[in-house]
Amino acid sequence: MGIGSAQLEIVDLTPSIGSEVRTDLETLLSGREAATIREILERRGVVFFRGLEISDEQQVAIAKTLGTLVANEGEGGINKISLDEKVNQRAKYLRGSMFWHFDGSLQPLPNLATLLRAVQLSETGGQTEFCNTYQAYEDLPEAEKQEIADLRVVHSAERSQYYVTPEMSYSEIAFWQKSATKTCPIVWEHRSGRKSLLLGATSDYVLDVSVEQSRALLARLRDWATQPQYVYRHEWQPGDLLIWDNTGTMHRVLPYPADSGRLMHRTILAGEEPLQ
Ligand code: OGA
Ligand code: MN
């Protein structure tokens, strides 16, 4: 509680993940505290700012103090996140965000961080949950750390779409199979030396084990990483700006009606760290 620099007050919301950062808009825009915010983000996984009345332009400006924007993501750095096809043509694809994932799992580098601002909320559902994949890794029994140390997982867009459309047609499968797959370690050893678990909805199969073992292991690790002690659930208020460290967390949104009007504005920061 209340630790931080002169211009930031940090309020931790659970022991292992999620902090509210209290400050003013001028401080955020100036970038003076950017290094401290990045440090808090890595340590706490998720930070949010409340009551600041941030515009789209200001959201993008804040993002730029923290890292490099991903090119071609939304207009002017703002992507409209909605399950309503009238608002976002990729609404169906976005339904995949209701399942544990991290952003950019199929990109060359996982995204560094995502900024999400609540423009309009749903009356029901729509909370966003985050789990700390550093802490989840650290708490694994030593034998399990050894068991998974060298395992690699093939991630695919196709796999994540089975959550959205369990009985995909041949042509739907063929469409998603056009996206390149990516092979990632389960244990990500970061430049800092810390390790985190790399799982999520695009995790298709573990290399060199049976199909059954692969499914069981991926489910067991997901269950482990999403236990209540690793999870923070954000109850949104209009205008909240939330940032997650996409390299040390997974997230999912709780279901909400597609026609609820829920609208979030998202800005993504490009990854800086390769996977081994
Ligand atoms: C995302 C995402 C969650 C939400 O934009 O990457 O997962 O709460 N959004 O809308
Ligand atoms: Mn996401």
CATH architecture: 4-Layer Sandwich
**SS-derived structural category:** alpha+beta
Return the CATH topology. Double-stranded beta-helix
Order of helices and strands: EEHHEHEHEEHHEHHEEEEHEEEE
Rg, nearest Å: 18 Å
Ligands bound, unique: N-oxalylglycine, manganese (II) ion
Distance N to C terminus: 36 Å
Tally of DSSP β-strands: 15
- The CATH class designation is Alpha Beta
Strand order of the largest sheet: 1-2-3-13-5-15-4
In the predicted model, the low-confidence regions spanning at least 5 consecutive residues are none
Mean pLDDT across every amino acid position: 96
Shape: globular
Integer tally of domains: 1
The helix content is 25-40%
**Quick one: CATH superfamily?**
Clavaminate synthase-like
Number of helices: 9
Biggest pleated sheet: 7 strands, mixed
What share of the residues does DSSP label as strand, in percent?
15-25%
